Amino acid sequence: MIELREVSKTVMSGSEPLTILHPLSLQIPHGRFVAVVGPSGSGKSTLLGLIAGLDAPSSGSVLIDTVDITRLDEDALARLRGEKVGFVFQFFHLIPSLTAYENVAVPMEIAGAADPRTHAERLLEEVGLTGRAHHYPSQLSGGEQQRVALARALANDPPIVLADEPTGNLDSANGRHIMDLLRSIHVNRGTTILLVTHDAELAAMADARLVMRDGRVVERVG
Amino acid sequence: MIFVLRMAVRETRASWRRLLFFFICIAVGVAAIVTLRSVIQSVRIVFGSEARSLLAADVLIGTNREWPAEARKTLDQRLAEAGSGERTETIETPTMVRPADRSKAVAKMAELRAVQPAFPLYGSVVLQGAPVYAHAMLRDHGALVRPELLTALGVQVGEAITIGRAAFTIRGVIASEPGRRVGGFSLGPRVMIDYDDLPSTGLLSFGSRADRRLHVKVPDDRIDALVRTLREDFKDDFINTRSYRSTEDQIGRDFDRAENYLSLVGLVIVILGGIAVSSVTRVFILQKMRSIAVLKCVGARSAQIIAVYILQVMTLGLAGSLLGVALASGVIAAIPIALGASTSILAQVRYGVTWSAAVQGVGIGILVSLLFSVVPLLQVRFIKPSLLLRDETLRRHRDVLSIAAIVIVSVSLVALTAWQAASLRAGLVVCAGFTGLAVVLHFAGVGLVRLIAPMASSRSFPLRHAVLHLSRPGNQTRVILLAVGLGAFFIVGIRSLQASLLGEFSVQVASDGPDMFLLDVQKAQVDGVRAFLGDKSHGAGEFQLIPVLRARVVGVSGREMTLEGADEVRQRGVSLGREFTLTYRDHLEANERVIQGAFWSSAAPEPEVSVEREIAQRARLHVGDTMRFDVLGRTISARVSSIRDVEWR
């Protein structure tokens, strides 16, 4: 379960403090598919970053399966991300020097998994990229890159997948394909999915919706 | 660990082109170290193995006086005790040689060596052309000479030369001979004659300067003991004893010095490469920021990522070092080609990369790669995975670990330099020099950027942006200035040292240097010689007669040091135990300066002596002390009236 207790984030804008996420409390039970919607700058990605431990909150605490991740150091956070959180970014963020297969295998190698090769190949098969395993990101289309990123997010079979506008950089067909994959992951694996998007149609596919504006959750649906 | 290994391989595969400069910097430096060390070591092997031939004996016992009968008895007894086998005697003396044909009005100073049939005990006399040396060639007034004597005298093999009062027929030309150091000082070309013919020349009269040498073969395990015993036996008899091992040791020390100096030169080249490595690594990490953030996002710890890049750096360091060894092999293989048909001993050397040089070079290459990249690599810890959510720049952080790394790297560099120079002091001096220079270049860089800052508002687009680039984040201005500045300094330093050494060597061949030395001019002959040389019709220009005496210190009564007898002088008189060349004159030369006491200006009631500064310091002599000298058997006491500083160069 994901739990946020009075979590806020303030950054310095020049010499002035700027609150990009106002104190927020929230619980997302295991196995839910939640969409976070809102305009640009509303604090959606910041929220995702705080839940993944990519960023530290200015106040409050974030708990993943009862572990307060705000108290963890960098290495413990990295380990937690490796085990429990998969991340899909709008700009894919694949490592350009590694092939598709290697990008998927890396999280497993870091975690010391027994057979990364077989698992990585199965994941690539699951996202429909069997024949592209040994291509570098620069040799793949945007949709293919995002599918590799999705396979990478699933590498260690995490209970949580965080997706930050995963279709934002794709055409509608590829966007639809990614959403279908996310949906099937949620259904088949029971993975908790937190999807950031400003596309209402995509958000409608989720079980629940959080609507954000100016760093606040202004509406909770479902 | 599997992750670290696999990622290092993948990263190296992907980015080796970007790190090519890194690779080349290390390769060039390692090539310099391996080449310099290997060449010195190869040359050293030949000189070391030639040590016996250089001495032409296992043990050489010599005196520049007549052999005392008692000493010969002792000598025979000691040699018998030591199980000495063969022995042979030689006498060497400098003398003038001229063609027997009086119509050729030339003469040349030569180094005459009279040898017995068993000479040489080691090595061989090599003659030019077909003939093989045999002592029979010298019998009945035969002579072998160096080719330069033939040229100087305008004579040929088969013609006669006059040595002293006797005529000798030239029967061959010496290409090389044992017992003569390469590059050693000589008064003239070698002339070899039969030992039994020497008396006929009349050169061996009372007071003549002649070195009598007894060459002996001794079982290897008894050499050191024999040398020790003979030195003890003859400590008061002006008889010197040395073995081929002491020659080997001296050569070894000379080569150690040369090897350490040249290795230091090589290390400095590697360090310059290291500065470039540091810069390349910093830029590389900046370029890899996003990938590092991704790795952290998917669970990698900073230590794992640093380990990946350290492994990569070491792999590149190893590859660069191996390339350096290959480059060194190429350069070394070209040396014999460059030497061509030279007959010098350097052409006899079997040049090749030595194992120890290769191992040292590779070790240094990897170590320098590591030392210079570890500090920029530590910046990996400050790359945040949040970078993937929003653009962030990497600011240079200095925490305790970074500062500790800088300290460890600095200490390691001092240790590395000290190791290469075989001297902690040299290591510290070189590193302190580098640091001082780096600070100066840093401020020069800052000043230069400020100086040209106004050009940033130039109307010229290229100029404006070129200037702005010099101070943009992540610029390499100061690093490049540092590397280029240190490089230029290093080149100028080496060139200056070279010029200084060449200047020193060229003293001997300076245009105002003497063309000829007249030795052994006796007191009764001084006026005649002076008159002869003063007569311009003989073609002599400026000349200077310098009185010289050979003497040994046999006592000191001084403020700090009191030594009674030659025995004590030898045992306790630091640096006073050897034979000295004394001169007497009424003025100081241009290269001399009195630093204590006063130089004599008029006849003194008692003999006075002026001592050179270094000898005075080592032997703790002061103005007012009394020294006793044995000059050709007479003891003369002299008061130290001044200490002189002599600029030997």
Averaged pLDDT of chain A: 88
Tell me the span between the first and last alpha carbons of chain A. 17 Å
The total strand number of chain A stands at 10
Looking at the structure, what is the overall shape of chain B?
A: elongated
Low-confidence stretches of chain B: none
Which pair of chains forms the biggest interface, and how many residues does each contribute?
Answer: A-B, 33 and 30 residues
Helical segment count of chain A: 7
Q: In one word, what is the shape of chain A?
A: globular
How many β-strands of chain B, per DSSP? Answer: 17
Strand content of chain B: 15-25%
Relative strand content of chain A:
25-35%
Our Rg estimate of chain A from Cα atoms comes to 17 Å
Q: What does the average pLDDT of chain B come to?
A: 83
Biggest sheet statistics of chain A: 6 strands, mixed
Distance between the termini of chain B: 61 Å
- Helix content bin of chain A: 25-40%
Report the sheet with the most strands of chain B, covering strand number, pairing sense and barrel closure. Answer: 7 strands, mixed
Sheet with most strands: strand arrangement of chain A: 6-7-8-3-9-10
Point out poorly predicted stretches of chain A. Answer: none
Written account of the structure:
- The complex is a heterodimer of chains A (222) and B (649).
- Chain A has helices spanning 44-52, 74-84, 100-111, 116-126, 142-153, 172-189, 200-203, and strands at 2-13, 16-28, 33-37, 59-64, 67-68, 85-88, 160-164, 192-197, 208-213, 216-221.
- With 222 residues, chain A is an alpha/beta fold.
- In chain A, the strands form 2 sheets. A 6-stranded mixed sheet of chain A has the order 6-7-8-3-9-10, with helices on both faces. Chain A has a 4-stranded antiparallel sheet with strand order 2-1-4-5, with helices on one face.
- The radius of gyration of chain A is 17 Å and the shape is globular.
- The mean pLDDT of chain A is 88.
- In chain B, strands 11, 12, 13, 14, 15, 16 and 17 form a 7-stranded mixed sheet that branches. Chain B has a 6-stranded mixed β-barrel with strand order 2-3-8-5-7-6.
- Chain B contains 17 helices and 17 strands.
- Chain B is 47% helix and 17% strand.
- Chain B starts with a helix and ends with a strand.
- The longest helix of chain B has 44 residues, at 244-287.
- The radius of gyration of chain B is 34 Å and the shape is elongated.
- The model of chain B has no long low-confidence stretch (mean pLDDT 83).
- The chains are: A alpha/beta (222), B alpha+beta (649).
- The A-B interface holds A 45-46, 48-49, 52, 54-55, 74-75, 78-79, 81-83, 87, 89, 93-98, 102, 106-107, 109-112, 152, 155-156, 164 and B 2-3, 6-7, 10-11, 13-15, 290-291, 293-304, 381, 384-386, 388-390.
